[in-house]
Specification:
Length: 291
């Protein structure tokens, strides 16, 4: 069952969705409030966000489940509702997607294995709970994203692969170092990441967050060189955040991102969407230029 990979073979390049958190904030999500609980208490708003990306031209959309692990949810006293919340997240995106694909979001837990904060067994069980619930909610694939540590990403991939039949995407977040190379906050290079996640069983790899398209082009080239036969997903920010009048602003307009999108495709990206600061307007512009 590889619906995303098969669709790439048919269409060549797919358009994903954009940011969720900032849109939730526009709809009223308050600081300190659990975004994932909106899947239960504000389901119509979550469906509306997903549908806005489908209407903008997305071939596939994510879910409001980035912080849906038991370790993230326990900060809100919701750890015991992890299955319910994740299943609902996938179900809402499934409702909005229609015949389009749902790639369910699984973010990092915030726990560091090498520091002894958690055991590998506990981490595995957390990802298993989330993956199974998202599968039961109707996801077509799992998007393990914004990772920085190989051990956590590999654990998530194994938990997903061993407990669901879904296709697995894994993306890391890289930063440009002083010597102009790219590394995660844990020191992992794109090539090291690619080898590790493919060995663990990922079907698609990539990068999200932390960079605008210009840097993502370089990261995509490195990933494509390391894994030339593997589809690559790129979710770039709308530029790097700036503080303007006390607010965080992402400077790249839909037109600016769309203008740079062909460079991502040429570098080897098979799935192109957005991360922080992007909107349905950005996705509509990306769709237009790719067509």
């Amino acid at each position: 069952m590889k619906p995303v990979t098969n669709l790439i073979r048919q269409k060549g390049v797919l358009v994903s969705d954009g940011a969720w958190g900032t849109i939730l904030q526009q709809k009223g999500l308050q600081a300190g409030e659990c975004p994932e609980l909106w899947n239960i208490e504000h389901a119509d708003d979550v469906v509306a966000i997903a549908k806005s990306y489908i209407d903008a031209g997305s071939d596939l959309i994510e879910t409001n489940s980035f912080g849906g692990s038991v370790f993230k949810l326990e900060h809100y006293g919701l750890a015991d509702r992890a299955h319910e919340i994740n299943e609902a997240a996938a179900g809402l995106s499934r409702q909005a997607a229609g015949e389009k694909l749902v790639i369910a979001s699984m973010g990092p837990t915030g726990k560091i294995l090498m520091m002894g904060e958690i055991t590998e067994e506990q981490l595995y069980e957390a990802f298993k709970t989330q993956a199974v619930a998202l599968a039961e909610g109707g996801a077509d694939a799992l998007c393990i994203e914004t990772m920085s540590a190989i051990d956590e990403a590999v654990c998530a991939i194994k938990a997903a692969k061993e407990n669901t039949r879904l296709e697995i995407i894994c993306t890391f977040t890289f930063e440009k170092t002083v010597d102009n190379t790219y590394r995660t906050m844990m020191g992992v290079s794109p090539a090291e990441m690619a080898q590790a996640v493919l060995d663990a069983g990922a079907d698609i790899l990539g990068s999200n967050c932390g960079n605008g398209i210009a840097n993502m082009v370089e990261i995509t080239r490195e990933l494509h060189q390391a894994a030339p036969d593997t589809p690559i997903l790129i979710h770039a920010n709308a530029g790097m955040p700036e503080h303007v009048d006390g607010e965080v602003v992402f400077p790249e307009t839909p037109e600016m991102m769309a203008h740079q999108t062909p460079m991502l495709r040429e570098a080897g990206a098979s799935i192109i969407g957005g991360c922080c600061g992007t909107t349905p307007g950005h996705i509509r512009a990306i769709r237009s230029v790719l067509e």
